[in-house]
Design goal:
mainly alpha, 240 residues, 0% strand, 2 domains, Cytochrome Bc1 Complex, Chain D, domain 2
Length: 240
């Protein structure tokens, strides 16, 4: 008895990867944006195609059923009906998706979202206990380079190597409208708790900011905050 074809196994693998990224991973960290999930699925598809085309036999096992299904060669009965349904539904779905994305809407947003929601009471008014010395700032730059620069960029401008995979993009700290408008205690909360730690008024939130409280000690976080302000040429907001 023959097992599932390589094409079926590839489809199952893609479904498993999608389920793991969409539903399992958010149980342990911040949800991934759909743009990044689609990127991972695209890379997985490339891997499946490369693996399935290593030989003539594997190429036939992977692509043969797909080509025969699309061309209608050698299929009949239920398979032929399924082919007609797919060929009819795909253009309709693409057209509906395009229409839904372009049609003007008079409906208000489902709910308002506060860009900078108030932090929990335990974080309000905290002051940085680490002395702002050149040595501490230098250590903070090292921690920032290791943990933060892949997304926020080595120049603190939100243009890190991984920034293209996120929507919305990582914060640009050199922008006067970001950390210059915030107190150090706010940054401490956001770094420590990440996107999953946002309060209700911050939802719906698509931030993929990790929750760093396990990997980073409080002392390391405070030093990173000092490095971010120094590197971006900004100063934290203070009570007037």
């Amino acid at each position: 008895m023959r097992g599932p074809s390589l094409a079926v196994k590839g489809g199952i693998l893609l479904a498993v990867v999608f389920a793991a990224l969409k539903f399992v991973l958010p149980l342990f960290t911040a949800p991934l944006p759909m743009s990044l999930i689609w990127l991972y699925l695209f890379l997985a598809t490339i891997g499946i195609v490369v693996y399935g085309t290593l030989s003539a036999e594997s190429t036939e096992a992977l692509l043969g059923p797909v080509f025969r299904f699309l061309s209608g060669e050698g299929i009949g009965g239920m398979a032929k009906s399924a082919r007609l349904a797919v060929l009819a539904l795909v253009p309709l779905l693409v057209g509906w998706q395009t229409y839904s994305g372009l049609v003007p809407s008079s409906q208000p947003p489902a709910e308002n979202r506060t860009i900078h929601p108030a932090p929990p009471g335990e974080f309000v008014g905290l002051s940085n206990p680490v002395p702002n010395t050149p040595e501490n700032v230098m250590q903070g730059r090292g921690f920032y380079s290791a943990f933060c620069s892949p997304c926020h960029g080595a120049k603190f401008n939100g243009n890190g190597a991984a920034s293209d995979g996120f929507n919305p993009p990582p914060a640009n700290f050199s922008d006067p409208g970001t950390i210059a408008m915030l107190q150090e205690s706010y940054l401490f909360w956001r770094i420590k708790k990440g996107g999953v730690g946002l309060s209700v008024e911050g939802h719906p939130w698509k931030s993929a900011m990790p929750r760093w409280e396990v990997e980073l000690s409080d002392d390391m976080i405070w030093k990173i905050i000092m490095a971010e302000y120094a590197g971006a040429g900004q100063k934290p907001r203070t009570w007037e």
